[in-house]
């Protein structure tokens, strides 16, 4: 019995020290190398403070729409819907989003709608949309705001984030930053 208990106690103490001390300090140190020291980046707009790295809900016609959220953009309860692509309720949700988008964006066909405008992300808090998702909304925003489409296209280009090291991921646009820039475009 002693031959099993003492090694188990030693292993427990080593794990306790490692995971509550050494590992925690390693993760904290890595976060210090990240932008804003691993803290969320705050943006101020319209007398509101928002996190730039958490998706915000935009559904008005004069703004770029965000990616849908399965948790209604609630950062306290991040998560996906866990419904598969063959689930009838999920398909109904996606179809309703497609129908809504088509009503607000006349002249756009169903096949042209990027998937990130009608499907929620795994976390439900994705703050980005694809460049294609932004471009397809230009006509609606230009019409509603009375701004030339070229000006909005330029705004999209200036807010496009390139893939990490030019290799990993795709071009993406932070919707909150883009909408703040759109408000500042006069």
TrEMBL record:
Places the protein is found: Cell membrane
Pfam families, alphabetized: KdpC (PF02669)
Molecular function via GO: ATP binding; P-type potassium transmembrane transporter activity
GO cellular component term, pick one: plasma membrane
Keyword Transport: yes
Matching InterPro entries: KdpC
Keyword terms, alphabetized: ATP-binding, Cell membrane, Ion transport, Membrane, Nucleotide-binding, Potassium, Potassium transport, Transmembrane, Transmembrane helix, Transport
Membrane topology qualifier: Single-pass membrane protein
Main location: membrane
Keyword Cytoplasm in annotation: no
Function: Part of the high-affinity ATP-driven potassium transport (or Kdp) system, which catalyzes the hydrolysis of ATP coupled with the electrogenic transport of potassium into the cytoplasm. This subunit acts as a catalytic chaperone that increases the ATP-binding affinity of the ATP-hydrolyzing subunit KdpB by the formation of a transient KdpB/KdpC/ATP ternary complex.
Database matches in NCBIfam families: kdpC, PRK00315.1, PRK14002.1
Family per similarity comment: Belongs to the KdpC family.
PANTHER family the UniProt entry points to: POTASSIUM-TRANSPORTING ATPASE C CHAIN, POTASSIUM-TRANSPORTING ATPASE KDPC SUBUNIT
Subunit organization: The system is composed of three essential subunits: KdpA, KdpB and KdpC.
HAMAP family: KdpC
Name of the molecule in the record: Potassium-transporting ATPase KdpC subunit
């Amino acid at each position: 019995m002693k031959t099993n208990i003492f090694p188990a106690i030693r292993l427990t103490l080593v794990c306790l020290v490692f995971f509550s001390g050494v590992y925690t300090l390693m993760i904290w140190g890595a976060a210090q190398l990240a932008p804003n020291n691993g803290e969320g980046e705050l943006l101020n707009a319209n007398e509101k403070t928002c996190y730039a790295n958490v998706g915000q809900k935009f559904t008005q016609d004069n703004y770029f729409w965000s990616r849908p959220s399965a948790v209604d953009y609630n950062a306290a309860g991040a998560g996906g819907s866990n419904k598969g692509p063959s689930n009838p309720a999920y398909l109904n949700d996606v179809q309703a989003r497609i129908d809504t988008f088509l009503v607000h964006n006349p002249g756009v066909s169903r096949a042209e709608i990027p998937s990130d405008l009608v499907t929620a992300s795994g976390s439900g808090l994705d703050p980005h949309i694809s460049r294609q998702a932004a471009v397809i909304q230009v006509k609606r925003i230009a019409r509603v705001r009375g701004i030339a489409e070229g000006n909005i296209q330029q705004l999209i280009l200036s807010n496009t984030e390139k893939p990490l090291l030019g290799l990993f991921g795709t071009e993406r646009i932070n919707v909150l930053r883009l909408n703040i820039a759109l408000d500042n475009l006069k």
